[in-house]
Structure formats: structure tokens, C-alpha cells
Design brief:
heterodimer; A: alpha/beta; 11 helices; 24 strands; 24% helix; globular; B: alpha/beta; 2 domains; 10-stranded mixed sheet
């Protein structure tokens, strides 16, 4: 036990490795939120009128809405007037190529281990880096362009492909969808846009990297992925933030639109600053993610590894509208210290012969609370819908909590829906078995946890899987219950 | 039958029929205040999301309790015919008489005290309308020879009935309890609150049978508290009712408790059966097992919500839950929400939940052996549901229920 405590202490006293700040000059809006701020952001981004109107409409809708109180998390009220809604790293002019990008900025991303400089092209991932809500650089653009793939920052897309943006923006997550989606729709500053044309299989992983740098800012980015017929894309998202004593708000929206036989795979490794071990500071991660399987035989698959954030409120969902479409959700959510997570998914079966699969693995340690909240809804005309859900929780320590709130609503008699959940701790017998074979306790825990999460980690692209495994080990090793 | 008028003000309607002078009683006035404060659960209420109780009550004739004492010749339900029981009879929600077969059973009444832990508005409503509480006690160390039968009669004179009783099984006692309505066809709202306290080493078998009241709207609050080393096995069988909401709460208040909750619901027509269960593990080293099954036919609706709480202190708890549903018709729906909330780490908890239909291959197998379609269906459905009452120790009841269920399934 004494050894456990010692190891636990070591782990919990370990610092958040992405906790530094970079000295970047930033161009910010004044604090607070009103119509003028919305106009200011829109002007800064040189947006067309229709988009400004859209933002204002969202803002007005937001004013009439109430912050959701149903998640199983507690936090002090957020003062929406005490947030800077727009902060951009200052640059003299839009960079034509990477050589013109502020070297301090490049250093920032190098520190994060993200290759913006294309010399590292061996990693073979196209990256769109978003710093404090603004996209700073996108790599491999030309190469993707040859295939007709559009991968750029959101503001660029608004300028260069307004017809696409106008058509699909808000088509999956309407602006009044929920409180945080409405807020995002009003003040989103940038994000990534991706279009895969008909029949194209994207040859490399596309990736967005988010970082909050400036203090007191909120990050509100928007990602829109449109996959045309018979296309395929795998998309990655990663995030970090500096250590700060105050809470910062991150309210993003991700929309995926999949047409006939398109396949989109979206993976997230979320490592926002979780707050200190006393629960001071950290990111509030209130994100709306939804995919629409609009065409027949389309498929959307969400994979997430959630290790950061003080509070996570996130339900990547699939609306299975096309016949024979399918949705998948794989999640590992780890909470430690004072973290709280309320995460899960929604699978809405509308089309015939639609299928969905949910695998959720929660791990709670320290004083954290970890909730799975999900819905499987089979509508009346969704003949032969099929769902399988599994959500397991692992508890480490006797002061944390694990909760599951699955809603299963079936309106069609041909549906087959299965749900199962378990809650347990790492068995002493399992540890004993490993120890007997000369594996020390810490390694044994890492082994067991990795095995426990393997079903989800296997879904991640290789580069991410390695990072995710390291993150898991970092947050948990040694915390034997 | 009165036609439902939009925005009927149920609260003021209820206030106008509160028994005269009862508001001067502190317990009643407090309960009434609490009820007004929470109000009737609307569509936004998470707990009553799938059971639109306010809309249902609006469809009923004016709600009023029956006036004066009713002394009716009270025939015994057919289900219990030929059986010697300790009968405790409620008429229009109020305690009427007791016909006891065992001398170790005592029935007393006293004024309802303020309840502290009530959360649901209907518990408050019950307290406001039932100024007296009936207490049934089984003496220490006694294994009752005959079952206790709690029977509700309706005279048709009241449309709002609020039975309220507590059963105390003192240390080491053992009892079998059945609770049911005498079949009737009155449109009324029954809002029951009952508590069973199983003392140390006590043993309880408890059957709630909901059958033969096709016009009744019910909300039932049933709480079973289990003390150290006690055993409880509860069966909730809902066969024929229009609108039923069962709030079943099992509190594990001691170690070495073994508790089972079984439930079966077979709604048909336009009926709705909503089972909300809570298993609250407050003490370590106990075991609970829950199994609810439903077969939905026609345009009916089945709802299941099962919460399992394991409090921080309740280490070494084993808690299991399963809920399985079959939808027979394209207009039937089911909403289920199994919910685990665990604050202790050294536990084994699981829940499973399925919704589906009968296996085509199994049907084919039976058909190919010359069994007609209807019987084949009934056979397979029977196999599916029988699990929920097969552990019943009262064989006589088990057989009767089996018969009732089989005849119901043959109509499918």
C-alpha cells in the first residue's frame, strides 16, 4: 500500500508537459460578448454578408437559450463576458509559404512535436494547426490539391469555396442545436475545412492540431468535413493548452457530412490541460460533434481518447439517415485528480438496415467523476436496425466515481439492440499473475489498462495509438486500487 | 367520462378536494406545500419523461377522494380464493379492515408523520391525502404460516385513492406478502406509498400483481429496506392496466443482504407500463440482482429505468441488472435506461439490456414440427418471460401467474 501511495504521488505530482506558454504577440478582441464582437470577428475574417447574418442569427438564438444543467458535472458559473472571443497570433501578412510564418510560431509547434515544416514529410500527415482559434498553417496543400481534395482553414474555405461552405455549414449541427453550438456558431474564429471529391481515397491522414496559447481566451473552432460519394478520409485531431490558474472555455463544433458510400474516420486524442491536482484551472471542453450519414452505405466512425480537460462534455454522434449506413463510436475516457467527464454518443437510426456499434471504456482515478451518457434511438421506419453497445468502467481508488446513463429508445419491432456495461477494478489476481512472472506492479497496471483499452486503441491510426498509449500510462501507472 | 379540457388546472382541482381541516395538520400542510413546490412532472421532467402523467390525469374525470367511510362487503380476489391469508383491506385508499389468520401479525394506524426523504411529487401528494398510516408488524423470530394479502377495493365513489402503509418484519421474522387490487373497471387514479422494513435476518417474499384494473391509472411508490443479513425477493407482475408507473426502491442498509427484484410487463392496446427501479447499496458486502422483462404489443409502450447506486462506503458489493424486451408490433415502443452510479472501487456491477424480437429460426423449428403459429409464438414468449417468476417460492401463486401469463400470450 505504501508503495502504491508513493507511486501515486509520483504520478500525480508529475507536471503537465505541455504547460508552457509561447511569447507570441496576439491580436485580440476586447473581452466580452455582444453583437459588436460578433461583427468584429466577422470583419476581421473579411467574411461575406451571409455569414455575418448567420452568426448574428446564432447569437440571437444563443441569448434565448439556457446553459445545460443535466450533465453529471459541477462547476462554477461561467461568466461569458469575461472571455476574449478572438485572439490571433500577430502576423504581418498572410503567409504565402511556411518560410514566411513567424519563426516563434514555428518553434511553438516544434515544441509540440508537430511537423509544420514539410521536411518531416516522412510522417505523411497533412496538418492544419490552429492556435488560439486561428489556423496558422496547413501543410501538404498542393499535393492534396492534385487529387481535388480541399483541406484548408475555415476562413480560407469561406473565401475560396463559399458555395460548399454555404451549403454544408450548419447542415449537421444547426446553429440553434444546443447552447454551446449556438455560442460557437456566433463567435467561431476559424477551424478546418475538408472536402473529399467523388471516388477519391485520401492518401494520407489529415490532421488538425489545436492549441490555446493566450490567457483568458476561449477557443471556438469549427470543423467541417464533407465526403462526397465513394470517398474515404481519416481525420485526426489533437489538442494541448498551457497551464493557467483560471478555467478556459473550449466550445468547438465538428460537422461531418457523408454522402453515398463515403467513409469518414475521425480520431481525437484530447489532452487539454486538466487543471492542477488540487483542481485549479484547466479547460472546460464543451464540444458538439456530429456526423450525418446522408447517403446509403455511408459510414462514420468516431474514435476518441480523452485524457485531459477539467470538464469534458462531449457526445460525438451519428445520424444514420441513409439506408445500410453505419456508425461507430470507440472511446477511452480517463479522469484523474479533480477531472470530470460526461461523455458518450448518440446513434440515431433513421434509415433501413442501419447499424451502429459503441465501445466505451471509462477509467477513473483520484477524486474524479467519469460518466458515460449515450442514446440509441431507433426510429419507426428504421427497419432491421442493429446496435451493440458496451460500456465498461474501471475504478482506481475509492474516492472516484463511475456512472453510466444509457438511453435506449426503440420504436421499431424489427430492431435488435443490445447494451451491456460492467464496473470493476483491476483484480488483485491479475496483478498477482503478472508479478509472479516478474513484471513489476507499475508495468502490470500499464499492461492491464492497455489491454482493457485495446479494443479502442486499435482503432487509432498508428502514430496516434503510440501517443495515446503513452498518455494512458502517464495518467495512470501505479494507481493500483 | 369527462372530456379532457386543455390546461385543466389539476393543482387547484386537487387543492379544492383536500379533506376539510386537514391542512391544519402540520404534516399534511407541509406535504401539500412540498407538492405545490415541485408541481406535477411535465414533459421536461427527466424522471417522468416517458410517462406523461399530467396529460394522463387530465383525461380522467374530476379527481376527488371518496367522502365518508365506506363499509362494503369485500369479496376476496379470485386469485386468492381458497387460501387462508392475513387480509388487510383498503377501500378507496383507506384502511378498512383486517382479517388476520396469524396471531403474530399486528395492524395499527397512526397519523402520518412528516417524511424526510421523499423526493417525488406523488409521495407528497399521497402524504397530503392520507392523514393516517397503516402499520403492519410481524413479531420477532416468527415465520408466518400464512401469507399477508394487501387488497385494494374501489367503491367507484372516489376517483383519487391514496393507500399508505408500512410493513415491519422484525428481527428474524419471515413473511410472504401479496399486494393487489380487487378487479374493477372504474376510472380512477391510485397513488400508493408503501414501505417494507425487513429487519435483521428477516426474510421477505413480495409479489405485486397488477391485473384486472383496465381503467386505472396508477403511480406506486414501493420501498423495501433491508437490514443486516436480511433476504428479500420482490416480483412486480404488470399484466393489465392502462397507465402504470412503478417506483420501486430497494435500499440495502446492511451487510450480507441478498436481494432480488424481478419484473414482468405485458402491455397491450394503448397502455403504458413504466418501471423505475432504484437499488441503493449503502452498506458493504451485499448482493443484489435485478431482472425485468417486457413484451410490448399493439400500440403500447414499455419503459424501464433501473438505477444502481453503490455508495462510497459499500465496498465488495455485487450488483447485477438485466432488462430484456421484445417488441411484437410495429407501433409498440420501448424506452430503457439502465443506469449505474458507482462510488466504490472494489465492486462487481454490471447491467445488460436488449431489445429485439423472437428468433425466426426457433419459430421455424416449432412450425416444422406441426405447431401452429400462435402456439409457437406463445411457447417462445412464455419461455422468455417465465424466468421472471420462476424463482417464486409460493408455488400456488406461481402456477396461477403462469396460467394468467400463458392465456395472455395466446391472445397475441
Amino acid at each position: 500500500m505504501a508503495k502504491d501511495n508513493q507511486i501515486l504521488e509520483e504520478i500525480t505530482s508529475r507536471e503537465y508537459e505541455h504547460g508552457w506558454t509561447a511569447n507570441l504577440e496576439a491580436d485580440s478582441a476586447p473581452k466580452g460578448l455582444n453583437e459588436d464582437i460578433v461583427r468584429f470577428i466577422s470583419r476581421k475574417k473579411q467574411e461575406p454578408d451571409w455569414l455575418l447574418e448567420w452568426r448574428l442569427k446564432a447569437y440571437r438564438a444563443w441569448l434565448t437559450m439556457k446553459e445545460p444543467r443535466w450533465p453529471n458535472v459541477t462547476y462554477p458559473a461561467i461568466d461569458y463576458q469575461d472571455i476574449i472571443y478572438y485572439s490571433a497570433p500577430k502576423q504581418k501578412a498572410a503567409p504565402g509559404s511556411l518560410e514566411e510564418v513567424d519563426p516563434e510560431l514555428l518553434k511553438t509547434f516544434e515544441k509540440l512535436g508537430i511537423s509544420l515544416t514539410e521536411q518531416k514529410r516522412l510522417t505523411g500527415i497533412a496538418v492544419d494547426a490552429v492556435l488560439d482559434s486561428v489556423s496558422v498553417a496547413t501543410t501538404f496543400k498542393e499535393k492534396l490539391g492534385e487529387l481535388g481534395i480541399i483541406f484548408c482553414s475555415f476562413s480560407e474555405a469561406v473565401k475560396e469555396h463559399p458555395e460548399l461552405v454555404k451549403k454544408y455549414l450548419g447542415s449537421v449541427v444547426p446553429m440553434q442545436d444546443n447552447y454551446f453550438a449556438a455560442l460557437n456558431s456566433a463567435v467561431f474564429s476559424d477551424g478546418s475545412f475538408c472536402y473529399i471529391p467523388k471516388g477519391v481515397r485520401c492518401p494520407m491522414e489529415l490532421s488538425t492540431y489545436f492549441r490555446i496559447n493566450a490567457a483568458k481566451t476561449g477557443q471556438f473552432e469549427r470543423t467541417l468535413i464533407v465526403a462526397d460519394e465513394d470517398s474515404y478520409v481519416s481525420y485526426l485531431e489533437g489538442c494541448t493548452a498551457p497551464m493557467r490558474d483560471e478555467h478556459q472555455l473550449h466550445a468547438a463544433v465538428v460537422e461531418i457530412y457523408a454522402m453515398k458510400s463515403a467513409h469518414v474516420k475521425y480520431s481525437t486524442v484530447q489532452n487539454w490541460y486538466p487543471g492542477s491536482k488540487e483542481g485549479v484551472g484547466g479547460i472546460y471542453n464543451f464540444v458538439t460533434k456530429r456526423g450525418l450519414c446522408a447517403g446509403d452505405h455511408s459510414k462514420i466512425s468516431w474514435t476518441q481518447v480523452e485524457t485531459g480537460s477539467a470538464i469534458t462534455w462531449k457526445y460525438p454522434s451519428c445520424v444514420l439517415k441513409g439506408d445500410y449506413s453505419s456508425g461507430e463510436f470507440y472511446s477511452v475516457a480517463v479522469t484523474n485528480n479533480h477531472q470530470q467527464a460526461d461523455t458518450g454518443t448518440k446513434m440515431i437510426h433513421i434509415g433501413k438496415n442501419t447499424r451502429s456499434r459503441i465501445v466505451s471504456k471509462g477509467i477513473s482515478a483520484g477524486l474524479s467523476q467519469n460518466s458515460y451518457r449515450g442514446q440509441v434511438h431507433v426510429l419507426k421506419r428504421a427497419i432491421n436496425a442493429r446496435n451493440f453497445s458496451q460500456c465498461d468502467s474501471l475504478l482506481m481508488g475509492d474516492r472516484c466515481g463511475a456512472h453510466t446513463f444509457p438511453y435506449i429508445d426503440v420504436e421499431n419491432s424489427t430492431a435488435r439492440v443490445e447494451h451491456e456495461a460492467t464496473t470493476s477494478k483491476i483484480g488483485e489476481d491479475q496483478i498477482f499473475y503478472c508479478r509472479q512472472r516478474g513484471i513489476d506492479e507499475e508495468a502490470a497496471v500499464a499492461l492491464i489498462v492497455n489491454g482493457y483499452a485495446k479494443e479502442v486503441l486499435n482503432q487509432l491510426p498508428m502514430e496516434f495509438a503510440v501517443e495515446a498509449q503513452k498518455l494512458l500510462a502517464l495518467t495512470l501507472e501505479g494507481s493500483v486500487g | 367520462m369527462t372530456i379532457a379540457t386543455a390546461n385543466r388546472n389539476l393543482i387547484s382541482e386537487l387543492e379544492s378536494v383536500l379533506p376539510a381541516g386537514s391542512k391544519s395538520e402540520p404534516a399534511v400542510s407541509k406535504a401539500w406545500e412540498q407538492f405545490i413546490q415541485t408541481g406535477l412532472p411535465g414533459q421536461k421532467s427527466e424522471e417522468y419523461k416517458y410517462a406523461p402523467i399530467a396529460r394522463q390525469l387530465e383525461k380522467l374525470p374530476a379527481l376527488k377522494p371518496s367522502a365518508g367511510d365506506v363499509l362494503l362487503p369485500t369479496p376476496l380476489p379470485q386469485f386468492l380464493s381458497g387460501q387462508t391469508c392475513n387480509y388487510i383491506v383498503f377501500v378507496d385508499g383507506r384502511f378498512s379492515s383486517a382479517k388476520l389468520a396469524d396471531k403474530e401479525v399486528k395492524v395499527t394506524t397512526r397519523t402520518t408523520e412528516e417524511s424526510h426523504d421523499a423526493k417525488d411529487p406523488f409521495e407528497w401528494l399521497n402524504a397530503a391525502f392520507s392523514p393516517s398510516l397503516t402499520i403492519i408488524t410481524v413479531e420477532e423470530g416468527v415465520a408466518l404460516q400464512h401469507p399477508i394479502a394487501i387488497v385494494y377495493h374501489s367503491s367507484g365513489r372516489g376517483t383519487l385513492v391514496n393507500p399508505r402503509w408500512t410493513l415491519q418484519l422484525l428481527k428474524g421474522s419471515k413473511a410472504t406478502v401479496i399486494e393487489m387490487c380487487q378487479p374493477h373497471a372504474y376510472e380512477l387514479f391510485q397513488n400508493k406509498k408503501s414501505v417494507i422494513e425487513a429487519g435483521e435476518k428477516a426474510s421477505l417474499e413480495y409479489l405485486i400483481l397488477q391485473d384486472g384494473t383496465p381503467a386505472q391509472t396508477e403511480v406506486n411508490h414501493t420501498e423495501v429496506r433491508c437490514a443486516l443479513s436480511s433476504y428479500a425477493s420482490c416480483f412486480t407482475i404488470s399484466l393489465n392496466s392502462r397507465f402504470v408507473r412503478n417506483n420501486m426502491k430497494l435500499v440495502v442498509d446492511g451487510s450480507q443482504v441478498e436481494a432480488h427484484l424481478y419484473g414482468l410487463y405485458l402491455p397491450s392496446g394503448d397502455s403504458l407500463i413504466d418501471n423505475h427501479t432504484v437499488v441503493d447499496h449503502r452498506q458493504p458486502e451485499s448482493f443484489s440482482n435485478e431482472m425485468y422483462k417486457g413484451v410490448m404489443n399493439d400500440r403500447s409502450k414499455g419503459v424501464f429505468n433501473g438505477k444502481i447506486y453503490v455508495r462510497p462506503h459499500a465496498q465488495k458489493t455485487n450488483a447485477f441488472q438485466s432488462n430484456r424486451n421484445i417488441l411484437l408490433s410495429e407501433n409498440a415502443t420501448v424506452n430503457t435506461k439502465p443506469q449505474l452510479e458507482i462510488w466504490a472501487d472494489d465492486v462487481k456491477c454490471s447491467h445488460g439490456c436488449t431489445t429485439g424480437q423472437l428468433d425466426e429460426e426457433a419459430l421455424f423449428y416449432l412450425r416444422s414440427r406441426g405447431i401452429d403459429k400462435r402456439s409457437a409464438y406463445a411457447m417462445l414468449l412464455h419461455a422468455f418471460v417465465a424466468e421472471t417468476f420462476k424463482e417464486m417460492k409460493m408455488t400456488q401463486w406461481k402456477e396461477t401467474i403462469d396460467g394468467l401469463v400463458t392465456s395472455r400470450l395466446l391472445k397475441v
